[in-house]
């Protein structure tokens, strides 16, 4: 399969989703929205919202690094941690409806980052 960078438009210019930051930005904002849901619904154990704020901030920084620095490592960290969270809460969802929502929130963080436009965004260097 040819990469989008190899597919010129009819006028000779090359266009793909990785060159359209608005598409990548929308996907990262979608991932960030699911991150916010996850941070709000996760019980961090002490009843103190500081842990939720901390992990939300860390997630936002990682998403920013994916967008601005085209970081494959930051993208990988978000995907792996989100998928681990989805598995953990997915297993707990067998008897807890709250865990179902959290598992879906974790999946919602990972899936936009696994789409073609975001993959191409981090593979190409500006």
Care to describe what's here?
The protein is mainly alpha-helical and 126 residues long. It has one domain (20-123). The chain is built from 5 helices and no strands. The protein has helices at residues 21-41, 50-69, 72-92, 97-113, 116-123. It starts with 20 loop residues before the first helix and ends with a helix.
Q: How many discrete domains? A: 1
What is the helix fraction of residues, given as a range? 55-70%
Run of helices and strands: HHHHH
Number of separate strands: 0
Keywords: Membrane, Transmembrane, Transmembrane helix
Transmembrane segments: 24-41, 47-67, 74-92, 98-118
Key features?
126 residues, transmembrane, 5 helices, globular
The gist of it:
This protein is mostly helical. The protein has helices at residues 21-41, 50-69, 72-92, 97-113, 116-123. The chain crosses the membrane at residues 24-41, 47-67, 74-92, 98-118.
What's the structural blueprint in terms of helices and strands?
Blueprint: H1 21-41, H2 50-69, H3 72-92, H4 97-113, H5 116-123
Helix pairs in contact: 1-2, 1-4, 2-3, 3-4
């Amino acid at each position: 399969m040819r990469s989008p960078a190899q597919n010129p438009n009819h006028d000779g210019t090359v266009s793909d989703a990785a060159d359209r930051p608005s598409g990548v930005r929308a996907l990262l904002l979608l991932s960030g929205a699911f991150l916010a849901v996850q941070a709000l619904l996760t019980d961090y154990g002490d009843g103190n919202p500081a842990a939720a704020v901390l992990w939300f901030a860390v997630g936002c920084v990682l998403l920013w690094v994916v967008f601005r620095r085209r970081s494959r490592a930051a993208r990988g960290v978000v995907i792996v941690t989100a998928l681990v969270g989805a598995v953990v809460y997915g297993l707990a969802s067998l008897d807890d409806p709250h865990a179902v929502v959290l598992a879906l929130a974790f999946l919602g963080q990972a899936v936009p980052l696994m789409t073609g436009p975001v993959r191409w965004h981090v593979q190409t260097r500006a």
